[in-house]
Amino acid sequence: MEAAARRTRPAPPPLPRWRVALRVSAWGAVIALLVAIVGGLLFVHRGDAEGSARVANSELELMLERGEGIDWRAPVIARHWWNYFRVTHGVVAATNRRLLYVGVPPEEILPREPEPQLLEESSFPYDRPIDLWRGRVFLGSLNGVVIRAPGQMRTFGVTPAERSRLDRVLTLMTRRQQAIRDSLEAERQKALEVADAARQPIFYVVSRGDALELIARQFNVTIEELQDWNALSSPSIRVGQRLLVKPRT
Among residues 126, 151, 160, 207, which is most buried (max CB within 10 A)? Predict the structure, then answer.
């Protein structure tokens, strides 16, 4: 009976159109507010570019290894959700060994007790794979680059005035990587040549006073091997005779 009563209950009347429109409008307002907040964080907050650059450049000098020098550097911008997408000013530098980055996060929104400043740091050695993607970043607000390497990824934006400097940094990095690849290929080819030379047969020309036993000892082979390689029926040899002392391997 109860089940039959439930089945025969009339369906609730549809919501009036004005209530549906009101719900849609409410969600639209919430979305618009969120977009406005994110947009405000992206476009309003600029941070201290000059002060951050001084800190980042000083830290870059401390990161350099012995014999490492900076070829070119460029100021960049990063944004992270954990900083509410506020600007993190930093510097990207191309050295003779790697690409370095130091970023200075924005100040805390809520004041805290004085403590050492934590900086963002990344190192991209040229002898490891580095993938670059260039385009618009941060919701299309800036030109920039995404740098990927094993175990890490960084996204940087750059102002129009500094774009050429960032291009210079990335060009130097690409050239350094190509030089390393060329050097490795040259070493590989040399190793192949050495290995091929080691497989080539070695011949010895008999001189006065030579004996087959002495020649075998000199090249660390047996008399029987020398006889076999040179089709000798006896250990007798003659001056000027050309003997195979190491066959091709």
Answer: 126
Per-position DSSP letters for 90-139, written without gaps between them? EEEEEESSEEEEEEEPPPPSS-----PPP-EEEEEETTS--EEEEEEETT
Q: What is the pLDDT of residues 18-34, one digit of tens each?
A: 555 555 566 666 676 66
Greatest Cα pair distance in the chain: 124
Model's pTM, two decimal places? 0.67
Distance CA 110, CA 42 (A): 19
**Residue 139 CB contacts under 8 Å (≥ 6 apart), including other chains:** 38, 39, 42
Distance of alpha carbon 223 from alpha carbon 119, whole angstroms: 72
Is the distance from CB of 196 to CB of 249 less than 8 angstroms? no
3-state class of 75 per DSSP? strand
